[in-house]
Amino acid sequence: MSTLGTVAFYTLGCKLNYSETSAIGRQFSEAGFEEIKFHEGADIYVVNTCSVTEFADRKCRNIVRRAMKLNPQARVIVVGCYAQLKPDEIANIEGVDLVLGAAEKFNILDFIEAVQIGGSKGMVRAGEVQRANEFVHSFSFGDRTRSFLKVQDGCDYKCSFCTIPLARGASRSSTVEKVVNDAREIAKMGTREVVLTGVNIGDFGNGTEVIEGIRPKKEALFIDLIRELDRVDGIERFRISSIEPNLCTDEIIDFVAGSQRFAPHFHMPLQSGNNKQLREMRRRYKRELYAERVEHIRSVMPHCCIGVDVIVGFPGETEDDFLETYEFLRELDVTYFHVFTYSQRDNTPAATMPNQVPLPERRRRNEMLNILSEKKRLAFYRRFLGQTRKVLLEKSKTEGLLTGFTDNYVKISIELEDSWVNHVVDLQLDGIGKDGLVAASLVAEPQKHKLHQVH
Fold it and tell me: How far from 449 is each of 122, 391, 402, CA to CA, in Å?
């Protein structure tokens, strides 16, 4: 079959980016391009970037350099958050042909002809972020085991360290009906788990379009969405990727506790266990509310996995402030942390705040919290040794081994052949290996046709 050429993608950053890369990939496939692996030397490379860390520029340059080595004649297009924030900087990277901002990236095919004939070298199409005012639905595909389903985009919060509102625009959402339809499409592909993604998914319901800063009144809330998704046949599990503690209501927690499909797993950003720091970060809660959320989750789901985002080295964070966060987290009944070392981002209030913490000190604090996180994760895993839990099996990098996650996010490994991939199986959790994964074994030797096998 003849095609218009080959295209390959590289995604940096969050689950939301992965869902959007897949949506862009579908556009190329429907237009007649053949999608190939990155290392196979494509005619066109699309790099979807992230802006969360200070290394965005370095990562982007590295990926462009790799693409040009694979095919010196390749055309390179850069999209995503970093492309919106610093388009001219990216355009000056050797090898970059086109830079598309937040409002332009989903119109990528409009620019392809100019890219292919070589008339777009260093071209930038990144307008004001206010133009990114429509919700574009997307979900990842290709991995039959798991799909990232975008339900919300943008953010109206003004956290002092964050560039996401500058990169993605105002909060806007899909509709309940559209998300449910997307979930049904994902189920038809044989995917077993759906992860709901967005910038601020608890803010779901803000309308699909923002016009001159005004949006329609909310017609649905996040709780309405997950209730409808819980009725979708063919999806074994739904996971909530991350939700703000002030939006993670008791109603949502109680619903997940009683659901057959929503996994007992919450990831709530904390950022600091010190109220002074939370105020300076312009977060919308105090640490006391966060502790209440954790306590309620534990009261209705003792087995629930609880993940935490935390930032170390925010401007003005003294040693006492950090130790208060450390002790707060040490005493909190949570499972693991994602620890971020604060990095200054242009055009954010935090970048010009006094009392910037020296980088070596930020890194030391990061290491301390990562050690504590690993201790908590292993303690959580030990609670379930000897138990039987359902595991969605996935491929691993090791021949003869499969990995997978329980409903409550315990990662296991088991000696099984690849034909077991994408099955949900009852496994006994036996012990923790040197790799930090839980070794598991089959409870029985069930026949494949009884394992909800997807054809």
Answer: 54, 17, 19
